[in-house]
Amino acid sequence: MKKIEYKWIVAIAFVLGMFMEILDTTIINTAIPTLANDFSATPATMEWVILGYLLSLAIFIPSSGWIGDKFGTKKTFLFALTMFTLASMLCGQANSLGQLIAFRLLQGVGGGMLTPVGTAMLYRAFPPEERARASAVLIIPSVIAPALGPVVGGAIVSNTSWRWIFYVNVPVGIIGIIFSAFLLKEHREPRAGRFDIAGFLLSGVGLAGILYALSQGPEHGWLSNTVLLTGLGGLALMAVMVKVELSIEEPMLALRLYKDRIFRNANFTTTLSYGGFIGFYFLLPQFMQTLLGASAFHSGLATFPQAVGVIAMSQFVGRWYHTIGPRRLVTFGMIAAGLATLPFAFLELDTSLWTIGGLMFLRGCGMAFAFMPLQAATYANIEGPDTGRASSIFSAQRQTSAALGVAILATIFITKTNHMLDSGTEERAAALSGYHTGFVASVGIFAIAAVWAYFKISDADAARTMQPRPKVAQA
Fold first, then answer.
1. What sequence ranges are listed for the domain Major facilitator superfamily (MFS) profile (predicted)?
2. Over 80: is that where the pLDDT of 260 sits?
3. Same domain, yes or no: 278 and 227
4. Using CA atoms, how far apart are residues 4 and 6, in angstroms rounded to an integer?
5. CB 211 within 8 Å of CB 54
6. Which of 295, 363, 377, 286 is nearest to 330 (CA)?
7. What is the structure's pLDDT at 453?
8. Do 230 and 306 share a domain, yes or no?
9. Confidence (pTM)
10. CA torsion sign, 83 to 84 to 86 to 92?
């Protein structure tokens, strides 16, 4: 029996951990109304079930790269898996809303470390010429878990207790812990340096402030005192963090990596593409549930074909990457995704979920041309010792881009809907107009990403990842 190469062992451990974390992030949204009813909580209080986790992520994502380098990626990954699994079990046992929020904060500690440390392990295991294959692995949990979340969550809430939306993580977590404990190898970086307390506090609190402001802005108004205070305060702390991190020898966040042109430009393209992707994903289920009358379960089924499209097309994109290069692939992907998104601006109140499912499949096919090449190109020139720090930066920026995409599209939707209501338009027609405008804005974000990718991403900068994979000699 042929022995499994170590890089695929890392890939399996990574997929298990990341799948569990992303699934949990999306599955809980379907249970919020049930939780509010069981705990007799107001919407303002219930949002802390989501916000608490988000803010905990923000604090620990930036430091996760250093922690993995200093104490070992295997130990850190196992700690994150264990913390997330244990916190999931505790969430399921919660007897009050306060307990649930506290246990969600613990989940965020584990979740904040899982993705950056797992990504670092993955890109260390795969050499530069195989990073397109590693990126194909990254896509699996990134697109399947968000698609499954509403489906699984809807089924659980409809047929059993809300507690199972947390318990479902436990068996996956236990399998991941056992698998990782026995098969992963330890890796430390000798030059990890001392703990950068200033970088930890400034980046963690600053990012938390920005994400909080982005989450509250659409509903409470961008000029409200809370949004202004947390948003501007977060930006100020991040500005101080940049100055501090660039002035010390071994910073927690290696901002010097932005000097690498492909890392800088690919990260910005990811900000646009992922922001547009998640922002749209925020609006569409609401459109189906509030205007089309679909359940959370059926709206989840309608969006699932997007994940199928991404996975199916990624197999071809992975082969084409080495000859076509990231610049043309990403540009085409953003154009294709935008064209597939445009028909959503013409959906009506009698649109079939089958039509939406077909469009989502096409949208997924287009996104595959962007997601996989961007992942591979971003890490093209990142050396082994810097992989942990690079993954922290990438994860923090992607988390921010998701929040920014939701904030922009939600603000556009609310503003347009209110404008139509003020002009005397019937409520459902006003909401439909708001959704249409939000979908068009998503197309606009993809268009900007396509232009940026065409002019700023250079295949020459990503040359190390475009080398053909070495062929295995035949016996």
1. 10-461
2. yes
3. no
4. 6
5. yes
6. 377
7. 96
8. no
9. 0.87
10. positive
